[in-house]
Amino acid sequence: MARRAKPKPKAKTKSPSAKSPSLRRLLVRWGLAAFVWCGIAFAGYLVWCAYGLPDLDQAAREPRRPAVVVESADGRLLAGYGDLHGGGVRLTEISPHLIHALLATEDRSFYSHFGIAPLSVARAVWVNLRAGGVRQGASTVTQQLAKNLFLSRDRTLTRKVQELMLAFWLEAKFSKDQILELYLNRVYFGGGTYGVEAAARRFYARPAKTLDVYQSAVLIGALKAPSRYNPLSAPESSDRRARQVIRNMADAGYLSAEQAERVPRRPAVAANAGEQARFFADWVLDAVGDRLGPPDRDLWVRSTLDPRAQRIAEEALSATLSREGEKHRVGEGAVVVMDRSGAVRAMVGGRAYAIGGFNRATQAARQPGSTVKPFVYAAAFARGLSPDTVMEDAPVSIGGWSPRNSDDRFRGPVTLRTALIHSINTVTVRLWQSLGGDAVRAALARVGLPQTENAGASIVLGSGSATLLDLTAAYAALANQGTGVWPHGIESVRDASGRVLDKPSGGGPGRVVDATAAAQVAEILAGVLTEGTGRQAKPAVPAAGKTGTTQNGRDAWFVGFTDRYVVGVWMGNDDNSPMKGVSGGTLPAQTWRDIVNRLHGAG
Question: Percent helix, strand and coil across the chain, each rounded to 5?
């Protein structure tokens, strides 16, 4: 019987339960290694981010171009050169309404978080994931300060990590109140303004300490999008945003619901001085440089400009040129309004302002025409002649030059009073012959209208050159019984801390016209408005003035004064082309009358 073969023993196999511990150990080792390497990579990334941070102490005091801020006489901002940074103010010098508006809108957990707000971050991540894009941010005030002080505005992961690192550093280095104070003094509010003090003065012409609930809401609302919510250029959008901020304040407990509903609207007011006040501001900036040299710190200049007078001057000139300019081929004009001390209250340098543009009130040296005649007559009266002195209105020649009168007729014997009222050229030239050229040139130079040494007799008819500002200042001497003034636009210059650096006293060169002669001329110039060439300039208040027209109507002037103001108006064309049917007694006189009436509340 055959023997049965023994079966081969089966190979031993490991059960799953036997192999699992080894696999788990392997996975754990791989996981730990990956975690370590990820940690090393993350630490390396953090080191790389930290390496890219700026020098914090250096960045905090980053040098910048000093700003010069020019304010009107009542504190409204006219213009800023450089970035407008308000003087650093303490937290106690900022309206509590503004602080409440900031915390309610930007960072309600500010005083409890450590630089970041985890719940806000989680909420923002959830909202953005659901929206499929960035819809909500979660930056705290501390993070925003870190970004404003040290970082660019790039929206990258690296910049965000650096922002978090800097936020932790700020929280460790400064107290919460210090962080809030730094933020409000550095943040951009729009309109070229940095810091709450500059913004309060820019948009509401008041210090930050006096802002009410609505004004505070407007400024904080603008932080979201400064250009979109600018209260001057976009008042309706600004108001809607401010109302949301006010609701935030109520929701956060800073206001009751009833108080929030009753908050009145406060329109921004700082732009009321007029856009063309920039002509004046540029002139003042040059004067600051002449007095103090290039600025080495932020400067705040309180000027002499009166916003109401500026608006009146702008509107009157614009109305005349818009209505009559094309018809009479008048392209440009300028206006200067000063008080009798020489303080410039309004200045219009042309139809429209352009940065770095030509100021026709201060830079255009034009022929003044007959506006110089009063000073020739004043010199004659100081020599012993009088308004009743009689001279011949008849042909006269000097070296082959034979001037004519504007109406091409001769009146025969006339008094000097009549000759000046009707602007008779021949009699004025006879005064040149009587006084002598040196005396006439000296008389004009004393009132700020210097002439060349070889200037001939034609200068008594205005063949020289003068700016509107200088001519207006010269007439101030007649208004002041012969005492001259220096035209000026600065009341004071102070630094950001409020310390006064310069306080010009105005003043002038003293007596430049004999007092009796000045009074006699002023009386005659009052007659110019009632019976002479300036009848269209006669305002509703007592006044005196003189017309001026150059050859072929290339320049037309009216300059005169009341008991409060000295006003000059010029019209012409930049290319010196002649106007059509325009003299000093027409469009300039009419514009002058409109300005004076409104300045005195009489029209």
Answer: 50, 15, 40
